[in-house]
Amino acid sequence: MQPILKVTNLSKYYGHFLGIKDVSFELHPGEILGFIGPNGAGKSTTIRTLLGLLNYQNGQIEFFGETLNLKNAYHLLKNIGYTSSDANMYEFMKVKDILNVSLKLSGTRDDTYQKHLTTLFDVPLNKKFRDLSFGNRKKVSIVSALQHKPKLLILDEPTNGLDPLMQLHFFAEIKKLNKDHKTTVLLSSHHLKEIENYCDRMMFIKNGELIDQNKIDQFIGQTYTKVSIPSHISIKEDDNISIQSRTDNKLSFIYKGNVKDLLNLLLSLNVDDVEITKPDLEELFVTLYDNDGGNI
After folding, report:
1. Nearest Cα residue to 217 out of 235, 234, 199
2. Looking at domain 5-215, which CATH architecture does it have?
3. What is the pLDDT of residues 41-51, one digit of tens each?
């Protein structure tokens, strides 16, 4: 099946400073892909480069089977909905005018879905964008991205600034578009529960490079395992072992690898009391990023 988005060895530098390096991944029709990383890891740089908002030095970007270039950029990008993390739009325009211009640029004439979204998110249509709170700016950005029912949604921290009810409305609309129209989604978020609850697959970026990508269930409980053993047993951290906590009675660590190798390790340590569980996504995040952070 032809991917909706294919990225090959994408690299971006800010002068001599690394933004992203050799980023490669595919996004397939109807898939919801979570994009995870700490501040400065390269998530927004990747997204802005994909959309042509930043120039890049190496690599290739394909949307819908076509390599992105200056000649076909408008044709391809009008099939994409995008929310930026900072929600900047035309400051001196009224909200209703921003949304109508955005709808026309997508080639869509029917504003029925726009009206549904502006009612659902309680968007102040007659205010100028400059007068909006950050939360209302995010609502306008969301409506602009969703209103033409695009083939692909690229969402950079979309729920920041939204209250819990609006967040629920947002994900209900995403799931409905995904189910009814096979809309494909790239979701960048700091909210790990959002990724865990709504995504089919996720990828991690650290210091500008992708370090892992897989299906959710292969991250949680297959690739990684949480292990608790008596605290008197001596064990050292390495590429496969990340110690999480130690108390007077218990030592907990995350193990990366297959279960057979884990069992052999436990046998070699003469462990007679062990608890093996699935780690949650927050524990995996700490395991992957706690040592080095993620700054560019």
Report:
1. 199
2. 3-Layer(aba) Sandwich (3.40)
3. 899 999 999 99
